[in-house]
């Protein structure tokens, strides 16, 4: 499963982190980033994550107030 954030739209706050802390983290710039294998990815970069996290990732995407989380199966 591929997950990424459009950082031109992310407003911070971290609803995604609450929904799925295994994949999303708030960085010191106030924006959320995706995590792949323990590594925080860069701006607009894609993380490839385990499909078992799909439900919580979809919760994050649906709850994101900016609709800026993208998921590809
Ligand atoms: S929920 Fe959306 S807008 Fe909020 S921090 Fe996460 S990606 Fe950014």
Largest sheet: 3 strands, antiparallel
Helix count, per DSSP?
Answer: 2
* Elements, N to C (H/E): EHEEEEHE
Provide the list of bound ligands, each named once: iron/sulfur cluster
Distance between the termini: 5 Å
CATH architecture: 2-Layer Sandwich
Features:
alpha+beta; Alpha-Beta Plaits; three-stranded antiparallel sheet; globular; binds iron/sulfur cluster
What would a concise description of this structure say?
This protein has 73 residues and is an alpha+beta fold. The chain has a single domain (2-72), classed as Alpha-Beta Plaits (2-Layer Sandwich). Helices cover 21% and strands 27% of the residues.
Structural write-up:
The protein is α+β, with helices and mostly antiparallel strands and 73 residues long. It has one domain (2-72): Alpha-Beta Plaits (2-Layer Sandwich), CATH 3.30.70.20. Helix content is 21%, strand content 27%. It is built from two helices and six strands. The longest helix has 10 residues, at 54-63. The radius of gyration is 10 Å and the shape is globular. The N and C termini lie close together (5 Å). 23% of the residues are buried. Bound molecules: iron/sulfur cluster (SF4). Iron/sulfur cluster is lined by residues 5, 10-16, 32, 64-66, 68-69.
Produce the secondary structure layout.
Elements: E1 2-5, H1 15-19, E2 24-26, E3 32-36, E4 39-40, E5 47-48, H2 54-63, E6 69-72
Antiparallel strand pairs: 1-5, 1-6, 2-3, 3-4
């Amino acid at each position: 499963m591929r997950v990424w954030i459009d950082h031109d739209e992310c407003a911070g706050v971290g609803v995604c982190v609450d929904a799925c802390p295994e994949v999303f983290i708030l960085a010191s710039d106030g924006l959320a980033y995706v995590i792949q294998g323990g590594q925080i990815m860069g701006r607009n970069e894609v993380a490839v994550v385990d499909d078992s996290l799909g439900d919580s990732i979809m919760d994050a995407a649906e709850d994101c107030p900016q609709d800026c989380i993208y998921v590809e199966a």
